[in-house]
Design brief:
The chain is an alpha/beta fold and 255 residues long.
Length: 255
């Protein structure tokens, strides 16, 4: 499928989407690295969370976001959501072969390479753990590492509420991270883009016992490489950052 009515040139913006505010950490890493790029970010708060949705539903939502981003002239799409990458990136690439896509992958490889204990913990959604990409990454890069997986859906809710510190957030983080530390994990991989928003708290809980690994900077570097390969880096500009939210975030209000 071609890109209807868009003329791709370096001054076009880069599109991002996630189920909510999670992917903003990826967008921010990208903008820090490439300050001349304009961006359009879709936070699909109307359908958040994605973590337990069936893959075909996520594919449908992802395709809708890509259509919106392309209609706004985006020259590249960053799927700033591990769950959506797991479910939909193959479909997106097959549908829009001329669009460069960048997806998320839990940073199991660097964690396994650096681990001294031979145990790493991964925090992500069930959808991410169910994906082919995750299984293949573990099989390729963590053969001799024990990879412990923990689903932490409540982190998504906390982050959508903006509750990234305080007693409730700390208790939630301790409940998920302490068992990984007790099992000997010396690296904790943040495999969901919402979780870096809780990184200070996770680092506080893991202090002296485990390093916290998240791939936002690596994804930003990959996006830069892809743009450079296609001659699409913007030499100037970078003052426009559009944020689209599909619903009132009040639905995550404190209860
Ligand atoms: N931020 C997303 C991810 O990286 C989705 C979390 C959710 O909506 O469940 O997986």
């Amino acid at each position: 499928m071609s890109r209807p009515g868009t003329r791709v040139n370096p001054s076009c913006p880069v599109g991002f989407f996630d189920s909510g505010v999670g992917g903003l950490c990826v967008r921010d890493a990208f903008v820090r690295r490439l300050p001349h790029e304009d961006t359009v970010y879709i936070a699909d708060t109307a359908n958040c969370p994605y973590g337990n949705r069936p893959p075909d539903e996520i594919v449908r939502l992802a395709r809708r976001h890509v259509r919106t981003l392309l209609a706004r002239g985006c020259k590249m799409v960053v799927v700033a959501c591990n769950t959506a990458t797991a479910a939909a990136i193959d479909n997106l690439r097959a549908t829009w072969p001329d669009v460069p896509f960048v997806g998320m992958e839990p940073a199991v490889k660097p964690a396994a390479m650096r681990s001294k204990s031979g145990v790493v913990g991964v925090l992500a959604t069930q959808g991410t753990f169910n994906g082919r990409l995750y299984r293949e990454t573990c099989a390729r890069f963590a053969k001799s590492t024990t990879v412990l997986t923990v689903v932490a859906d409540e982190f998504v809710t906390l982050v959508e509420r903006g509750e990234t510190s305080g007693a409730r957030a700390e208790a939630a983080v301790r409940a998920r991270v302490e068992p990984l530390l007790a099992a000997g994990a010396d690296h904790i991989v943040l495999g969901c883009t919402h979780f870096p928003h809780l990184k200070p708290l996770i680092e506080q809980v893991a202090a002296g016992r485990a390093k916290v690994v998240e791939p936002s900077d690596a994804v930003a570097r990959q996006a830069e490489r892809l743009l450079a390969d296609r001659g699409l880096l913007n030499p100037s500009g970078g003052s426009l950052h559009i944020f689209i939210c599909t619903a009132d975030r009040q639905r995550h209000a404190l209860t």
